[in-house]
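Same chain as my last thread, 206 residues:
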Amino acid sequence: MLSINDLIEKFESQSDYDLYQIANNPSGYTSEAQEAISIVVNKRGGLAAIAERLAKAKDIAIEMDRVEKEVYGLTTLETDLSFIKTMVQSKTLSIDQLNETIEKSYALAQKQLKDKAVTPDTILGSILGCGVASIVGGILWGLQLIYSNAVFVILAIGLFFLCFGIIKLITKKSFKNTSVFVATIVAVILSVAIGQVLYMAIGYEG
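reply #2:
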């Protein structure tokens, strides 16, 4: 059986939220545990103080979410961070909290915008990646037909990810980029076509 000191140590490891829930529903605990809960709650300023901290933390979380959405709405590839900081204000967050939230949101928004941006380099990389992926995928698809004379669904899925992986490696962009998306679909179609041509030329060797 745990001593009162052991119980205090156990409940001290709980977060404010968990301790608040426990303190409001103590019926399932022994009298010793309830005493330990009461001691820990008092050490933290009492239930009212804990509730106040939890409410404040919730308000901060809601405000951070609002700030993040506002930053996302204001951010473009041309928008400067200093401009965002002058536009986004908060009465709930501290200066440090506000700046940190803005900077993180801005960096993430910029990353996503750059990923989706279709630039000449992206188009060139997509064309190159499509060509490489079509050749590699076509050879593998042809080998599947030549040595098995069958089409396996798992290999078809693998072909898609192979083409996307090659194009992503070259463009450094994700599937959210329109150029990468189109190039991947085209590469898959060309891979199947090339594989079929190889199969027709070589025939079944299984």
